[in-house]
Amino acid sequence: MHLKVLFVGDVVGRPGRRAVKRFLPGLIDECEIDFVVANAENAAGGFGLTPDMSDELMDYGIDCITMGNHVWGKKELIATLETNPAVLRPINYPDGVPGRGETVLPSKSGTPVGVISVCGTTFMDRLCCPFKTASAAVDRLRKQAVIILVDMHAEATSEKVALGKYLDGKVSAVIGTHTHVQTADEQILSAGTAYLTDCGMTGPVDSVLGMKSSLVMKRFLTRMPAKFEVASGPAALSAVVIDIDSAMGKASSIERITRRETEEQLISP
Fold first, then answer.
1. Which of 168, 195, 252, 260 lies deepest, with the highest CB count within 10 Å?
2. How far apart are CA 210 and CA 232, in angstroms?
3. Model-level pTM?
4. Domain range 2-204+237-267, CATH class
């Protein structure tokens, strides 16, 4: 028996949420998806997530929301992190930080699915070791779930690849987020773990990683501070579909998926 997982790349602002609403329900039906994970640390204006937006995304069909270095972008999310087991902060924050970084949730068929959210530390905040922290979480989740998914939210591709190799055979998938550009290195590692360095972005196409291009270019050209804003226009949903053996927890296939809005769809939503 197999279980199909859809992992949605970083949801950015209103355009990203709109793309999830437009495309996710159809993808769930089309690909016969049993469980959906999405990184939503940029869903609220590009920085953070609000409780209402987390509810909105789950209404569209997302089962588990992972976060990243912008997890504290909206302080009102703290209560949700404390009470909702389907909204995760990175697990490698120090002890005593609000929320949790691991969870086990039921899939559509009832099969338990473990999810871990972890942040890299290369060129990012100096959190606890992502390798040791994720490995300890895997040991805990194994008592409840055979299928375990890891969101590796990191800047350095080498750190993402290394974590994939480190957890190969111990988890069903290691999917990278944060850099917002979908990579073309999807693969099943030697011991059965599905891997992709970056799932890509779910947000405005005509942008620099979801932000207005002119503002980002001004910052590069002048080296002066600039307040970024989420770009407008058609959005794309970037995701990956993973087929997993429910009994063994090994992945058998991984496929990248992209869906893009047209200008006509924006006029007639």
1. 195
2. 9
3. 0.95
4. alpha beta
Q: How confident is residue 230, by pLDDT bands cut at 50, 70 and 90?
A: very high
H or E segment and range at residue 151: strand 147-153
Active site residue 2: no
The answer to whether the CB of 208 falls within 8 A of the CB of 223 is no
124, 159, 182, 229, 235 from 216: Cα distances, Å? 19, 26, 20, 9, 18
**Percent over 90 (pLDDT), the chain:** 96
CA distance 221 to 1: 54
Structure token digits, residue 227: 């307040």
Query: 3-state class of 19 per DSSP?
Result: helix
Output the six-digit token pair for 183: 């990579």
Contact yes or no for 79/39 (Cβ under 8 A): no
pLDDT beyond 90 at 23:
yes
DSSP class of residue 42? Answer: B
- Tell me which of 2, 70, 178, 180 is the catalytic residue: 70
Residue 267 pLDDT: 73
Question: 31-62: per-residue pLDDT in tens?
Answer: 999 999 999 999 999 999 999 999 999 999 99
Which residues 6+ apart lie within 8 Å of 53 measured at CB?
17, 40, 43, 44
Please give the Cα distance from 246 to 267 (Å, whole number).
42
Element (DSSP H or E) covering residue 149: strand 147-153
